[in-house]
């Protein structure tokens, strides 16, 4: 019997997929405003509903997770949802969503932990949020200061600026997105 332990794809839940949905959503505002310069008559004020975009993002994540679960199931993969803990050389304990603990043995164990965003150890860091929290803010911020000039920082800067927020991007080097 072959068992596969899968730590659910961070990209779908807290990574590129939800971020790309926000990027696409943010791109429409400036495009609609610019359309006036190309003959489009946009007579009414263009409004943006942050909560509706977040709901659509959540619906897409649920939809994609359903597709991935079906693909895995159809391929004969048994999916264990919960928190996994290696408890021996060939044993994994899974605490299921309802708190039940189950133990499984396998010849090979694949650990795919992903990563988590972290706050830098600086004064005031408790007032900051990470990119994880940024994907689910209750309200669209009016003014944002982003610490960092990497790809994720620049993407979030473009998301919030595209949705009308004032954005300050702070980075160490001469330019953002340096290799």
TrEMBL record:
Keywords: Disulfide bond, Oxidoreductase, Redox-active center, Signal. It comes from the Eukaryota. Residues 1-18 form the signal peptide. InterPro entries: FAD/NAD-bd_sf (IPR036188), FAD/NAD-binding_dom (IPR023753), GSHR/TRXR-like (IPR046952). Its cofactor is FAD. The keyword Ligase does not apply. Gene3D superfamilies: FAD/NAD(P)-binding domain (3.50.50.60). The keyword Disulfide bond applies. Residues 11-170 form the FAD/NAD(P)-binding domain. GO terms for molecular function: oxidoreductase activity. SUPFAM superfamilies: FAD/NAD(P)-binding domain. Belongs to the class-I pyridine nucleotide-disulfide oxidoreductase family. This is FAD/NAD(P)-binding domain-containing protein.
